[in-house]
Design goal:
The longest helix has 13 residues. This protein is α+β, with helices and mostly antiparallel strands and about 120 residues long. It is globular, with a radius of gyration of 14 Å. It has a three-stranded mixed beta sheet with strand order 1-3-2, with helices on one face. It has a single domain, classed as Ubiquitin-like (UB roll) (Roll), CATH 3.10.20. The N terminus is likely disordered.
């Protein structure tokens, strides 16, 4: 499989939450996402890109801060992905993230994986 619709997203680019489903196709069916994660976990895939969509006020660097998520250049593993989802869910600025809120794309010949986290921000107080 080649990179999908997210190859055109630039780092830090935000898309309004109301447009997520229509424009970015944010979220991926389990029957599509599961086999991709299994293949990337079975073989040695490198994380090529980590993107966030839906963050308007929360900075990209805040979402990436510390070891909160997988980073570009990391070796992909299901455990690290689940840890990233759990760590993002602890942030107060966004609603909890689940595995249903991620999109995985693989570039099998290059052994690369792109991860898109679909976030929804909490209202500012």
């Amino acid at each position: 499989m080649a990179f999908g619709a997210f190859a055109s997203l630039s780092f830090g680019q935000s898309i309004k939450t109301s447009k997520l489903k229509k424009e970015a196709g944010c979220g991926q069916a389990r029957d599509v996402r599961g086999p991709l994660i299994n293949e990337a976990n079975r073989d040695v895939f490198t994380v090529r890109r980590v993107s966030f969509v839906g963050n308007i006020y929360t900075r990209d660097r805040d979402l990436r801060s510390g070891k909160r998520t997988l980073n570009e250049g990391d070796i992909f593993s299901r455990r690290e992905l689940e840890s990233s989802v759990k760590n993002l869910s602890r942030m107060r600025a966004i609603y909890p993230v689940t595995m249903n809120n991620i999109v995985i794309t693989l570039d099998v010949p290059r052994k690369d994986v792109d991860i898109v986290f679909c976030v929804r921000e909490r209202p500012k107080r």
